[in-house]
């Protein structure tokens, strides 16, 4: 299994937007959106757009954790919308990570 451990921004290549925890909210149910790249607010180590990718308890799977809040990305209600952050429990979201290293 490849190792992806580390901090990343996740960018949509076509729109040049990044996966962003809306308003940096930590609560379950917080929205995750695609937003223009931006820097952290003064005094913050990481902004809403920095994510930690680390191995999950499930083999060949990874969790995606917001570096600012420590909350986990989770898909609720199918694959049409990413709407909630949760805890590292039951696997509800599986994705493939492709890195383009230049």
From TrEMBL:
Give every Ricin B lectin domain span. 5-78
Protein name, per record = Carbohydrate-binding module family 13 protein
Q: To which species is this protein native?
A: Favolaschia claudopus
């Amino acid at each position: 299994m490849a190792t992806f451990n580390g901090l990343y921004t996740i960018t949509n290549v076509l729109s040049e937007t990044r996966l962003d925890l809306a308003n940096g909210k930590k609560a379950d149910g917080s929205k995750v959106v695609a937003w223009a790249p931006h820097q952290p607010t003064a005094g913050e180590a990481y902004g809403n757009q920095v994510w930690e990718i680390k191995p999950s308890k499930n083999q060949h799977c990874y969790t995606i954790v917001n570096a600012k809040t420590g909350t986990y990305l989770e898909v609720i209600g199918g694959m049409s919308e990413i709407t909630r952050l949760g805890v590292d429990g039951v696997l509800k979201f599986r994705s493939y990570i492709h890195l383009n290293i230049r």
